[in-house]
Amino acid sequence: MNDSTSAESCPKESDEIGKETSTNKLLHESSENSVQTTPTNCATLFCSNLHPRIAEPHLEKLFRRHGAIARIHLSRNGGMHRGYAFIEYRNKEDARSAVAKLHGRMLLGRSLVVKFARSPKVNVNVTRVGSTTVSESGNDNTPRRREDVSRKIAAVRRAIEVAKERTRGR
Questions:
Q1: Contacts of 107 (CB under 8 A, 6+ apart)
Q2: DSSP state of 13
Q3: So what's the pLDDT on residue 107?
Q4: pTM tops 0.70
Q5: pLDDT tens figures, 136-154
Q6: Angstrom distance (rounded) from CA 37 to CA 57
Q7: Neighbours of 89 (CB within 10 A)
Q8: Which position among 50, 72, 125, 170 has the lowest Cβ density within 10 Å, counted as fewest Cβ atoms?
Q9: Can you say how many angstroms the Cα of residue 65 is from the centroid of all Cα atoms in its chain?
Q10: CA 1 to CA 102: how far, in whole Å?
Q11: For the chain, what are the domain ranges?
Q12: Mapping DSSP to helix (H, G, I), strand (E, B) and coil, where does residue 168 land?
């Protein structure tokens, strides 16, 4: 997550957790696999290894100690949550404090993993130059990356062949 700021701001106080605002509705109605974008002066944390009994109020109580929270999204699959959540802070310093103090903390017998959420990777202005793909978004879809993957695939195929030869020789 970058530390730059813009004119965009975090949700207003009226958008607090538990209130049905259009922003919160969009967050919960969106696809579970999509990544939510956040205004740049806010910070979103990813918290995983959550015990199945953990609910949003528990997360709110735990994370609110470190600063003002704009939103909490506990990822769900049907009625059960998937073991991870996104916590959006109104201030990056508060989010840094939460990461420093909560990462590795034991909660219901599990060690919490708390880190800054990654930004979504988006291909913007993808251009083909010969066999090279150039992307202004910085995605690593280069010939070198493809060569690395091809080399790894070839190594696995060789290992499989060696294993087959050993079983034939017995």
A1: 50, 51, 54, 62
A2: G
A3: 93
A4: no
A5: 544 555 677 778 888 889 9
A6: 23
A7: 26
A8: 170
A9: 22
A10: 18
A11: 13-116, 127-168
A12: helix
51, 138, 39: which is closest to 91 by C-alpha?
A: 39
Place of tokens 């696809």: 31
Burial of 21 (0-12, 13-18, 19+ CB in 10 A): middle
Q: Alpha-carbon distance 36 to 33, whole Å?
A: 10
Q: What is the DSSP letter of 45?
A: E
Q: How far apart are CA 94 and CA 50, in angstroms?
A: 21
Task: Read off the pLDDT of residues 46-89 as tens digits, 9 standing for 90 and up.
Answer: 999 999 999 999 999 999 999 999 999 998 887 788 899 999 99
Q: Which residues contact 143 (CB under 8 A, 6 or more apart)?
A: 131, 132
Q: What is the pLDDT of residues 102-138, one digit of tens each?
A: 999 999 999 999 999 987 665 555 555 555 555 454 4
The kind and range of the H/E element at 35 are none
CATH number of 13-116: 3.30.70.330
Give the list of residues 6+ apart from residue 108 with CB closer than 8 angstroms, or none: 51, 53, 54
Q: Are 59 and 81 in contact (CB under 8 A)?
A: no
